[in-house]
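Archive record
______________

***
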Amino acid sequence: MTADTFDIGFTLNGQAKTIAVRTDAMLADVLRNDLGLLGTKISCNEGECGACTVLIDGRAANSCIVLAVEVDGCDVVTIEGIADGGTLHPIQEAFIAEGAVHCGYCTPGMILSTKALLDHVPEPDTAEIRKALEGNLCRCTGYNRILKAVGRAAATLRDVSSRAATSQAGE
């Protein structure tokens, strides 16, 4: 560690990480340039477009405006961390099924914002979905397919949760 770097420790996609970062380094840059996680996109560098969205302690955050030192001790999830090995997360599957992945640039941020919403609100209404996604911009499409994908993912996750609860009750 030098005067202008700081050692941080955090959980990244379920794995403990320790890395020396510059005190002025933004999390998006560290994820992409130092850790090779290219799913976190950098576009506006102002926290306006949502392309760089990650989850920090379960909350959606624009990583282009978060200093890397701020995640010391936190749990960070990127788009690379939500699939289970080779199996896509139900949110990813819903986005594909509804055709909500046009060019794909905004998709990681949309999916992570959706995950943050559905982890806290399993049955969101349209207004709640719109509110959760309002910081994510898509230039390729209207948002109808994205809204349908979020609804589909919510239904799938509720069904999976219900089946798991029924299975556990029967044991």
Remarks:
- The CA atoms of residues 26 and 67 lie 4 Å apart.
- Helices lie at 27-34, 90-97, 107-120, 126-133, 144-169.
- The chain has two domains: 5-81, 90-169.
- The domain at 90-169 is CATH 1.10.150.120 (DNA polymerase; domain 1).
